[in-house]
């Protein structure tokens, strides 16, 4: 058996029954990573450490003292700080940054026995929807045949790693869709919990009121154990929630009596092939016993504009620290003045999209424009959140498209506003801080995966994951990328 095809749930089960060893599992994935360098999924693989951790996991099984994720290989987006392991956020300005501490999420996973395989490719500072904004070049979607396709972004490398069987599960971050959109483009599952569930401590900041860690996996079943271990209050993150974390998804076997809302704004905005997936998804839910109800999220049309004010505003503040003195690479000779040093370091260290966001952010926060842009965007954000509250008074879940299109060719989309439109279906739940999961549902006319999202009320992850599992089983999406050997 090729162990790289194991899902997290299958692999952990075989480990507990001592049918496989953690070392074999990790070694087969490391071999795949080595053979798949053309996918550019990893910025920094961590072979040596992964091998060592997997052998320690085997010792724990031999002692009958395994922890909940003992021996589970995990790929980690290169935005999570990992002690003694380079963490670049795919930026030249951090190309030599080796953290002295771990992010809370990676620490909790490791303390539960997970084995980190390495750090995955992404858009620089998580700004982007295609992985093309990486200082290390784009990751490549394993569904590509002739022309190289984008895996989506910003957590593109993590989605590629899972889809191409380089890792059973991966960590991503989702500020406006960066877990859910690449999951959709790569035919895998992407989950972001409620804002505040997963600590942001040690996650390099983009837009702090929106940034969230999330998980990418091949099945819904693989997500629940990661969530159970990683979620929960963290005193090191002041926005972390004190709510108790459910140990497992709700125990339900049908969607009978469940009301799922289909907001009309999503239908109106969907391209034809996305719309047909959306309709198919609604039909599947109906067959599972759910009642499909009409709904409206009237401020959805303004959500994207509000996001592209709020996120750059926060980014411009968060990225001010990379000045070549306190943080970041320095690019100036010794005779440079302080201003010249800042200018040269930031000009050399940041890529175009990051610079664009800093400029937009500084502009919308400037004295004359603060009320007209930033404050107005914050009001729109409140209205978007209120729309969701209203819908959830009459519905348990919302069904929405995940990405605006299927995978698109690398290098073809030069217009940044086209790229911003990719987030049209994911940004609303981000502004409202709601838990959402994207699942592959079908193949498009191009033979490429298309995903849909289920969105739930705050802190309803136990229900969301249970319903997502039923939906996943009924949708029965089993296709794998062409180059992947599924034997
Ligand atoms: N594509 C969006 C952006 O560029 C979302 C990114 C993200 O979720 N990190 O801002």
What does this structure look like?
The chain is α/β, with parallel strands linked by helices and 487 residues long. It has a domain at 3-254 and 435-475: Amidase signature (AS) enzymes (Alpha-Beta Complex), CATH 3.90.1300.10. The protein is 39% helix and 12% strand. α5 (156-163) runs parallel beside α6 (180-186). The longest helix has 25 residues, at 370-394. It starts with 7 loop residues before the first helix and ends in a 12-residue tail after the last helix. The mean pLDDT is 97. The structure holds glutamine. Residues 126-129, 154, 173-178, 206, 311, 423 line the site of glutamine (GLN). Glutamine (GLN) binds next to loops.
